Amino acid sequence: MFNRFRLLGLAGLLAISQVHAQPKPTARQLNWQQLETTAFLHFTVNTYTDKEWGDGTESPAIFNPTKLDARQWIKSLKDAGFKLAIITAKHHDGFCLWPTKFTEHSVKNSPWKDGKGDVVREVADACKEFGLKFGVYLSPWDRHEPRYGTASYNEYYKGQLRELLTNYGPIAEVWFDGAKGENAKDMTYDFAGYWALVRQLQPNAVMFSDAGPDVRWVGNEAGNAGETCWSTINTEGLAPGKADPKYLNRGDANGKQWVPAETDVSIRPGWFYHAAEDSKVRSGQNLVNLYYQSVGRNSLLLLNVPPNRDGLFADSDVASLREFRSILDETFKKNLIARQPKLTDKKLATAVSVAANQPLTLDLTGTQTVDRMSIQENIENGQHIASGRVEYWADGAWKELATFTTVGYKRLLRFPTITTSRLRVTVTEANGPVQLAEVGAYKASSREQ
Ligand code: FUL
Asked: Which of 43, 45, 46, 271 for mutating ligand 1's site (highest number of atoms within 8 Å of CB)?
């Protein structure tokens, strides 16, 4: 305890009253966090009606992705370094992309493959083939199902969840969307029951919602995690669709639960494919910026890439994905910090304990030009850094290069190019014993600018 108060420093930024046991990630959260780049696949009748929210009256007859090739989607994602893909098995319109036995409103009544197709199966199989993890989005808000608004809808929803959790192999993430239209019927969801079913049938899966229980919404759809972003929050009083986005964006240094932020954002203005947005696809460079704003702020990037009406990723989207990965690979190819057994071995668990206001000096591999830094905490031990600074050695003195707030899993710093042979990192405030896991210094690809 003594250590912890000492770390707080005189300013005592963080309330000393937080004497509860500090939260740490579960194994499933730790695995999830390290995926870094994950993908969303928004696909349903909206792809054919050019809507973002279907109203549930769409005929299954309009769903006909004649060239559907889930292998093309997943291979494009694999080539771009994505580690997980989540399919909208059912969006708010209620149309099911798999032949569920609980409703006729599904692919089985569409012309696609004469009603014998199963999009969820094709994506799950492609993920298995290319080594990606697989996840499902099953919208609680359902504008088609007549039982919606009654208690029996919870049985309907759980029946569908059970199908998805038992027939498609390992599921790494289940996405519980809190969205609900203003004029929607009242509905008391049995989230406790839904979550228990996931734990029972897929114990390794993380569950997403505004309130966790495993991972939380980042509070916006613009690809912007808080510059200060704690993986801890207090979930009491929160529920899917019921949380303050600003609170979710920053997290809470005094939070009692470990519920890290997931940054969901689309490669296009909409979540679904619209031909009119073909010229508005984010560039590779734009996606790299999202990476800094999500992964680089202790979050995780969940990038949506929507298949088109043929059932394919558009060429423009594939090109941006490729460019994104190629820029990141070039930037982070070579860590310019001289090898340090624990700090440059790319392992979280081998870490160095650092006390507040004790600078840690890092030699570079000779005199180097750098403009990016990466700092990681060993989050197996929780998240503790509240603020810090980086300096560089020039003309016989230490000069300030950058300041930062939270670090957590990963903090990426961007700063104007400097040339130096030494850097030093100082943690100035922390709410517990800091274990620094990794540090890196880099020169960004010229294509980032
Ligand atoms: C929101 C939904 O209403 C959007 O359509 C989209 O699925 C997004 C990821 O979540 O809440």
From this structure: 271
Our CA dihedral for 288, 278, 82, 381, rounded to 10 degrees, sits at 50
- For residue 266, the ligand 1 atom closest to its alpha carbon is 9
Mark which of 299, 331, 363 sits at the end of a domain: 331
Domains held by the chain: number: 2
Domain assignment of residue 159, yes or no: yes
Nearest CA residue ID for atom 4, ligand 1:
271
Q: What integer best gives the mean pLDDT of the chain?
A: 95
Regarding whether 427 and 326 lie in a shared domain, the answer is: no
Do residues 390 and 425 touch, judged by C-beta distance below 8 A? Answer: yes
- Whether residue 430 contacts residue 356, with contact meaning beta carbons closer than 8 Å, is answered with yes
Q: Is 184 in the pocket of ligand 1 (CB under 6 A)?
A: no
* 179 Cβ inside 6 Å of ligand 1: yes
- Residue 301, pLDDT > 60, answer yes
Q: How far is the CA of 178 from the centre of ligand 1 (A)?
A: 8
155 and 262 belong to one structural domain: yes
Q: Given pLDDT bands bounded at 50, 70 and 90, which one contains residue 449?
A: confident
Scanning 244-366, the segments in alpha helix (DSSP H) are 245-250, 284-294, 315-331
- Ligand 1 center to 179 CA (angstroms): 7
Please give the Cα distance from 33 to 297 (Å, whole number).
12
8 Å CB contact between 134 and 165: no
In this structure, are residues 343 and 439 in contact, taking their beta carbons and an 8 Å threshold?
A: yes
> Can you give the pLDDT at residue 21?
78
Does ligand 1 come within 6 angstroms of the Cβ of 43?
A: no
CA atoms within 13 A on the CB side of 312: 8
Nearest CA to ligand 1 atom 6: 271
Domain holding 49, by residue range, is 25-331
Q: 227: domain CATH number?
A: 3.20.20.80
Q: Which residue's CA is minimally distant from atom 3 of ligand 1?
A: 179
pTM > 0.85? yes
Pocket test for ligand 1, best of 86, 138, 221 (most atoms within 8 A of CB): 221
Ligand 1 site, residue 319, Cβ cutoff 6 A: no
Strand 411-430's sheet: what is its strand order? 352-354, 434-442, 360-377, 411-430, 385-394, 397-404
Does the structure show a pLDDT above 60 at 307?
yes
